């Protein structure tokens, strides 16, 4: 009886390692935590830098300016004088001259010219010049993650082809945990910048390995589309929770609190990976994947990557610039800076789950085309908002449209590799992640500079028009041809070769039990 009781957990573990659904859960949780950390800093960093640098500097200058006040105590007592010019009584000090008195009585009757700038309402931050410069600095900090991820992604794609997806996935967890802890205890711009860049390395390992693992497990195109939609739902949920969670925790608990909670959740994710994925096991691909350089010369893959890049660039430009624009024009409190992204996050969650299934029926190319057009229109409407409620419609439409594009383009990338290249997915999803990162690298880094030069409304007009202009290119993904070698086979009257997008050899990653190796040898 005790032996049977001991075998039950092991049986559950073996069954779990053989389950595709648990693999999907692991990828879901990894993308969730990655994107929570991505967006939790959005409302925290601008206000944190403003509080520590601008207000801290002014508080140190203020005492020096108030020191000359004591000599006023030695002034002679005040006295009153009657003016026969306009029958008024004026209170003056003993040191006031007659010329000053006449000027004062004349100024009391003249209308006062309007002030050069109206006083700021209560709650609005001071330091317009500091906030303008902060647009650029915050944009560069946000972009550092994507820039590092952009550089690391191709190497991770090659690594997954050689050692499999499980070890890179676990490496991503370790780096993300270190980055989260560093965010919690960083008090300067430099340390925040390093933590953000470190997050880019961990995110590269997690996203490339996770999406490649899903594509290798779900070989059927319809099932793969559904699985990608669910996994991107984890990404959407992270974006959904991150910004509001960060703003509320920062306002009412403190800066470190949201990052410590994320670090604890990351530890749970690491334990789940140890149980399900066996990260100590090396499982290289059985066939050699198509080189990245070859994939980058494929025009259809480039069109799909461009759609991912430009659609996400819009929300990437909003992340550093929208909170500062709200501080300047709406005088928004801290908690509203994160809540402004809530409509986009909720609608993105709905869009990815809905169109993960629906896009396969209506045509993924059409879903992407409509999504990019809606992204452009939503961005054009953002500057029209006068308060946080006016942002609900544009941000909601933006998130829903990006969900349409992402849930359509991720399965298309895997389908294009099946159709035109070798069915090994590490490199193509490295390209997809590079496209995603280019949007989040170019967007924040250039967005802050554009806002400082020509203003926030013009930034939204530029990126909105770019998305609308790019949308018609998705039409080319309607019916992509097979690659040239397979077309040559078809031209030789070989009707049995019509389905050329199936994998050349079944890739065996699951079940991950020790008995599976023996079964494979017996089958051979």
Automatic annotation (TrEMBL):
Catalyses which reaction?
Answer: serotonin(in) + 2 H(+)(out) = serotonin(out) + 2 H(+)(in); dopamine(in) + 2 H(+)(out) = dopamine(out) + 2 H(+)(in)
Annotated coiled-coil segments of the chain: none
Where does this protein chiefly localize?
A: membrane
One GO-annotated biological process of the protein: aminergic neurotransmitter loading into synaptic vesicle
The UniProt keywords, alphabetically, are: Cytoplasmic vesicle, Glycoprotein, Membrane, Neurotransmitter transport, Synapse, Transmembrane, Transmembrane helix, Transport
| Region forming the signal peptide | none
Top-rank lineage group of the source organism: Eukaryota
Q: Which residues cross the membrane?
A: 21-45, 171-195, 201-218, 230-253, 259-279, 300-318, 338-358, 365-385, 397-417, 424-443, 455-477
Which InterPro entries does the annotation name? MFS, MFS_dom, MFS_trans_sf, MFS_Vesicular_Transporter, Tet-R_TetA/multi-R_MdtG-like
Q: Where is the composition biased (Pro residues)?
A: 111-122
Any idea where this protein resides? Cytoplasmic vesicle, Secretory vesicle, Synaptic vesicle membrane
What are the annotated GO cellular component locations?
A: synaptic vesicle membrane; terminal bouton
Q: Where is this region: Disordered?
A: 96-122
Q: Which GO terms describe its molecular function?
A: serotonin:sodium:chloride symporter activity; xenobiotic transmembrane transporter activity
**What residue stretches are annotated with the Major facilitator superfamily (MFS) profile domain?**
72-482
Report membrane topology.
Multi-pass membrane protein
Record-stated family: Belongs to the major facilitator superfamily. Vesicular transporter family.
Q: State the name under which the record lists this protein.
A: VMAT1 protein
Provide the species name: Cochlearius cochlearius (Boat-billed heron)
Starting at the broadest rank, the lineage of the source organism is: Eukaryota, Metazoa, Chordata, Craniata, Vertebrata
């Amino acid at each position: 009886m005790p032996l049977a009781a001991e075998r039950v957990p092991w049986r559950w573990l073996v069954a779990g390692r053989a389950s595709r659904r648990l693999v999907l859960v692991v990828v879901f949780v990894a993308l969730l935590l990655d994107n929570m950390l991505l967006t939790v800093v959005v409302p925290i960093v601008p206000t944190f830098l403003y509080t520590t640098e601008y207000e801290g500097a002014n508080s140190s200058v203020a005492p020096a300016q108030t020191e000359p006040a004591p000599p006023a105590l030695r002034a002679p007592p005040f006295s009153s004088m009657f003016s026969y010019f306009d029958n008024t009584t004026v209170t003056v000090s003993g040191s006031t001259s007659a010329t000053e008195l006449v000027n004062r009585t004349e100024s009391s009757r003249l209308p006062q010219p309007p002030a050069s700038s109206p006083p700021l309402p209560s709650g609005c931050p001071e330091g317009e010049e500091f906030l303008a410069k902060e647009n650029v600095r915050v944009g560069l900090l946000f972009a550092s993650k994507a820039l590092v991820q952009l550089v690391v992604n191709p190497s991770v794609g090659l690594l997954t082809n050689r050692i499999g997806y499980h070890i890179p996935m676990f490496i991503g967890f370790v780096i993300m945990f270190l980055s989260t802890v560093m965010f919690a205890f960083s008090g300067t711009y430099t340390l925040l910048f390093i933590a953000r860049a470190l997050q880019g390395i961990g995110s590269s390992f997690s996203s490339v390995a996770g999406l490649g693992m899903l594509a290798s497990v779900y070989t059927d195109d319809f099932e793969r589309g559904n699985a990608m939609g669910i996994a991107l739902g984890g990404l959407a949920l992270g974006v959904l929770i991150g910004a509001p969670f960060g703003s509320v925790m920062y306002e009412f608990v403190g800066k470190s609190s949201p990052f410590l909670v994320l670090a604890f959740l990351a530890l749970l994710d690491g334990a789940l990976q140890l149980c399900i994925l066996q990260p100590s096991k090396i499982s290289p691909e059985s066939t050699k994947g198509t080189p990245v350089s070859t994939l980058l010369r494929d025009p259809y893959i480039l069109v799909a990557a461009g759609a991912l890049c430009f659609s996400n660039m819009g929300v990437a430009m909003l992340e550093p610039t929208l909170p500062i624009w709200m501080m300047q024009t709406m005088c928004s409190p801290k908690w509203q800076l994160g809540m402004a992204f809530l409509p986009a996050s909720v609608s993105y969650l709905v869009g990815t789950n809905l169109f993960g299934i629906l896009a396969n029926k209506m045509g993924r190319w059409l879903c992407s085309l409509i999504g990019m057009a809606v992204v452009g229109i939503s961005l054009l409407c953002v500057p029209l908002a006068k308060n946080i409620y006016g942002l609900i419609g544009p941000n909601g439409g933006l998130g829903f449209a990006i969900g349409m594009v992402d849930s359509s383009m991720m399965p298309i990338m895997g389908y294009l590799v099946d159709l035109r290249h070798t069915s090994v997915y590490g490199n193509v999803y490295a390209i997809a992640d590079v496209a995603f990162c280019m949007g989040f690298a170019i967007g924040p880094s250039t967005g802050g500079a554009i806002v400082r030069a020509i203003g926030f409304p013009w930034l939204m007009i530029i990126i909105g028009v770019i998305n609308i202009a790019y949308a018609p290119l998705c039409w080319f993904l309607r019916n992509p041809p097979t690659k040239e070698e397979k077309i040559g086979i078809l031209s030789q009257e070989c009707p049995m070769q019509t389905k050329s997008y199936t994998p050349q050899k079944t890739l065996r990653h699951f079940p991950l039990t020790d008995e599976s190796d023996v079964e494979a040898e017996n089958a051979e």
